[in-house]
Every structure is written in C-alpha cells, then in structure tokens.
Amino acid sequence: MATGRTRASRSTFERLPRLAVPPNGAAVKAAGYRARDALRGMAGVSAHAYLWTFSRAHTVAGRRRSMPSRASVLWMLTALLIAAYPVPNFIYWPEILKSGVLPVDGDSIGIPMFGSLLVTLVVSPIVIGMAWMCYRRYNPSTRFLVYRLDRPLRSAVATGIFGVSAAIICFAALADAVRAMPWYEYLWPAYMLFISAWLLTLRASFIQQHTVQEAEAEPLQ
Questions:
Q1: Which of 6, 10, 43, 79 is deepest in the core (most CB within 10 A)?
Q2: Could you give the angle at which helices 86-99 and 110-135 cross, rounded to 10 degrees?
C-alpha cells in the first residue's frame, strides 16, 4: 500500500509543470523589468479608478447637500413645524400622568396640553414671518452649507442668528438624547432637532436669496 502511494505521488509530481531556469542574469533582469512595467500599469489603472470613484462620490455628496429646488417644499416644512408642536404635548403629558410622577394634588395636565395650542397660535405669525423673509425670492441653486464671501454681511448675520441658534438647540437636544430616559422623554429632543434643521434652511435660503433684479430677470431666462 505504501509503495502504491509513493508511486502515485511521484507520478503526480512528475505531471506538474516545471519552472524554466533562466540561463543567465540578463533573463532575470528582463523579467524584473516586465514585472515592474506590469505593476506600474496596475497602479495607473487603480489610480484612475480611485479618482473616478472619488469624483463620483464628491458629485453625489454635493447633490445631497443641495436644498430643494422650490420654496414650496420649505413652506410645507414650516407648516409641519407649526402643526407638530401640540403633538408631543398631547402624547407626553398623558404618559407622565400614567407614570405616577406627578403629585396627586397637582394641576390638571390639560393646562399644558391645551396651552400648547395657544402657544402655537401666538408663535405662528412669528414663524411665518421669519419664513417669508428667508424663503421669498428663493434661489433654486441654494446649498445647505452655503457661505458667500461676496455677501459678507448677509452671510455673517444669517449664520450668527440662525446658524448659532440651530447649533445651540442641536447640542441641547443631543445632550438630552444621550441620557437613559423613558421613551416619551425623547419626543422633545426630536422636536428640537426638527427646529434646528428648519433654522439651517432659513440661514441657507437667506444667504443665497435672489436680489430684486435677479428675481425680475429670472422669468425672462
């Protein structure tokens, strides 16, 4: 049995292709040059593929940073922001009542719940006025993180008012969201992040806003 195995192994080994031994160093050097050229070609192809992929990713990323092409989308976002404020109140306070943390002799939860409707009515004109100031003469090519050096005052004022406010609200919301809380407590950080995103749309729209001359000339183009 051992002899048969040895013969089978030898016959298998003999059938394998044998390496050709170069007769001199010149052949080895030529093979090295060919290998070097092949590696250079592969490196060139990889570099072109990387640059193509990077350019495509940069283009896609640029598209993702784009704002909507129409102001109507942002107006719908503003309407949703106003209408959504009472919703967390009508969910949050009944859950607080069920949890038993409220004092027995405390005020009714209907006060903050229906008070949110009054707050919505009072704040709505202010929110709509801010949106009108920023969304009028809307520029379809507005970028979310735009900052125009040719409009330094407008860019600085919009960033200082809307951008800083959005950053403060966002950090406050995230600071609350990282803590372990009951599920209904996360309603407020979520709404705060919504406000932060809305403020950033105001900032970008106000900076990139068409001038009166540009708005009048746009329908003619």
A1: 79
A2: 150
The rounded mean pLDDT for the chain is: 76
Find, among 86, 87, 93, 92, the residue nearest to 121 by Cα.
Answer: 86
pLDDT tens, 21-32? 444 445 544 544
Q: Rounded CA gap, 37 and 48, in Å?
A: 17
The one-letter amino acid at 37:
D
Q: What's the Cα-to-Cα distance from 179 to each of 8, 19, 61, 125, 176, rounded to whole Å?
A: 70, 67, 32, 34, 6
DSSP 118-154: HHHHHHHHHHHHHHHHHHTT--TT-BTT---TTSHHH
pLDDT above 70 for 167: yes
**Rounded Cα distance, 90 and 110, in Å:** 9
Choose between 82 and 103: higher pLDDT. Answer: 82
Using an 8 Å Cβ cutoff, are 158 and 207 in contact?
yes
- The number of angstroms, rounded, from the C-alpha of 12 to the middle of its chain's C-alpha atoms is 60
What number is the average pLDDT over the span 24-43?
46
